[in-house]
Structures are given as C-alpha cells and as structure tokens.
Recover the amino acids of this structure.
C-alpha cells in the first residue's frame, strides 16, 4: 500500500476515510495537529513517510507515502523534498538517510528502536564472517547502519528468498531474525546460517492462539508474518510480508481475516477494505507507538532529531541497501 498522497485532502475527507476505526471524540483530539502538520510540511518542503504499523491518524492523516519497509526505502530515494520525516523506527530513518545522504532526515522519537536491530552489532557480523570465511551476508533491513555496512546485500520479508537466491551461492549468513531465516530456509535450497534475533511483537503469537481463533471463526482466513514462530506460520492459511498481507486481503476480500502481525496494521488495512471483518489479537509494537502527532509536529517545526551516520559506515551500508532495491520484490 503505497502512494497515500493526502496533501489535498480536507480534514473531513480524512476523517470520513478512517471513521470506521476511530471514534469521533478521538478524532477531535487529532484533527488540529493533523491540520498543522499538513500545513507545516508544505511550508518546509517536507515529505512524511509512514510504516504500515503507524496509527491511522498518522498513516492516513499526514503521510505522503505509507508503505512497508522496502517501499519506504525506494520512495525515500525518489523524493525531491528537502526534509524527510520518517514515522517508524530508528533503522528505517537510517535507511532513508542512506538513500538520501544530502537530505535532512528526522525521526520524531530517537528512542523508537527495534528488538531485531538491537539483537546484533557490526562486531557480531565481523565475528560471523571470520567463522564462515567467504560466505556472503544477507541482512534483514531491520538492522542498524553499522550492521548494514558489514553486509553484502539487505532484504525485507517481501524479497528475502529472492535476495538469497540472487547471490548464486549454496550458503549464506542470514541476519538477524531467526524465524524469518527459518521461513527462508523452507523456501530455498540455499543453506541458511542464522542468528538468534526475534521480533518482540511476532514472537508472542502462538499456534494455540491461532487455532483458538479459527475454532471460533471457522470461515476466517489467517495470514501470518514470516517473523512469527514456525508453528504459527504452519497454522495459518498464508504467510507473507506486510505488503503481501495487504495484497492478499485486497485481492481475495475474505469475509473475516486475522493478520498475525502488529495490531495497528489491521486498522489501516480495514480502512481500504470496508467489507472485510478483521479479528485483532492486539500485539502492539511499543517502539512504533512512540511516534505521535505531537512529536512529529515538534520535530518538523524545530527540525530536531536529525539522523547522522558517519561517512565510512554510510558509504558501505548504502551499497547493501542499493543492491536490495535493485533486486526489488
């Protein structure tokens, strides 16, 4: 789901779009800030990029581009704006900066981190490369610039298998998500050497939870993210990236659906698919929820929380991200 261009939408139009997932009393709190932000970004020639896990007032209210991590990386490289405000987590803002070294990239809350990104360091990767000399490194985009700098090519959950197979080798080091590595291994003959990182949102889901929901809703379609444990994926009807989930719902229009991923994404997808009923086991990402309209307005007004990456790390890390973008989905 990309290209959500809201520059010309009135507040009434925006609320009409999201009214099914937001009470009017809540909207009245958000509307004044949405209006201020949309005016301010025009004045400053800024673009706002929002990840699928952002709340509806951000995702549908102020974002110029709302998408998964791969699409955000691609769109970040195309923008002509002077300022990029990344409504997501720290590694995403770093990725936007790598793709736009001459632009100012802002993150509304510098504490918006990621359990996967914090699970591995550049030193860890160097240690693995010493242990497995000559084996190429594929790093999930959910990693720091320091890790990307030690990486041959990045990937997202949308293109992980394609990236691994594009290398034409029989063995790769795949970092840092253990469950995504397991998913990739089941879909390729390339031997995967993995790391023991996990996503604090997706690792909480259990097969029993999925089975219980299916028993209560026999007609439901259950779609899992590849960062989920293997038994959760096995208990689901489909496994795919955030963009893959959006596409599945849009094309199949199931009567009921469970997205086994960050809860807020269900609200955003529901806005675009009003005939689909979403069952929501609410696992929220505490890092994504650090981004609020108030913080977005403050950082854009004051141009604070700018992302800085050292020249040497940025030069090396940019290559791995560019290779990922060239491979595409």
């Amino acid at each position: 789901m990309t290209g959500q261009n809201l520059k010309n939408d009135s507040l009434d139009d925006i609320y009409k779009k999201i009214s099914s997932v937001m009470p009017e009393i809540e909207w009245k709190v958000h509307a004044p800030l949405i209006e201020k932000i949309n005016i301010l970004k025009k004045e400053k020639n800024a673009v706002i990029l929002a990840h699928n896990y952002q709340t509806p007032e951000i995702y549908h209210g102020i974002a110029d581009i709302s998408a998964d991590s791969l699409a955000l990386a691609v769109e970040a490289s195309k923008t002509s704006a002077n300022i990029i405000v990344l409504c997501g987590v720290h590694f995403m803002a770093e990725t936007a900066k790598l793709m736009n070294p001459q632009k100012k990239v802002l993150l509304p809350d510098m504490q918006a981190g990621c359990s996967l990104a914090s699970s591995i360091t550049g030193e860890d990767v160097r240690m693995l490369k010493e242990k497995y000399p000559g084996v190429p490194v594929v790093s999930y985009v959910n990693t720091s610039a320091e890790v990307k700098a030690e990486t041959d090519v990045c990937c997202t959950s949308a293109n992980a298998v394609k990236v691994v197979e594009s290398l034409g080798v029989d063995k790769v080091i795949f970092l840092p998500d253990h469950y995504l590595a397991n998913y990739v291994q089941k879909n390729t003959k390339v031997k995967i050497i993995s790391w023991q990182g996990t996503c604090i949102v997706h690792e909480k889901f259990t097969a029993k939870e999925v089975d219980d929901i299916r028993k209560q809703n026999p007609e439901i379609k259950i779609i899992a993210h590849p960062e989920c444990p293997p038994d959760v994926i096995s208990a689901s009807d489909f496994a795919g990236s955030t963009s893959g989930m959006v596409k599945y719902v849009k094309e199949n229009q199931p009567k009921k659906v469970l997205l086994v991923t960050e809860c807020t994404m269900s609200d955003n997808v529901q806005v675009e698919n009003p005939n689909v009923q979403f069952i929501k086991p609410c696992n929220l990402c505490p890092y994504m929820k650090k981004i609020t309209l108030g913080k977005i307005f403050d950082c854009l007004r004051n141009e604070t929380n700018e992302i800085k990456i050292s020249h040497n790390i940025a030069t090396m890390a940019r290559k791995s991200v560019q290779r990922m973008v060239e491979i595409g989905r």
Q: What stands out?
A: The CA atoms of residues 105 and 307 lie 6 Å apart. Residues 11-113+288-302 form a domain with the Rossmann fold fold (CATH 3.40.50.10800). The chain is about 45% helix and 15% strand.
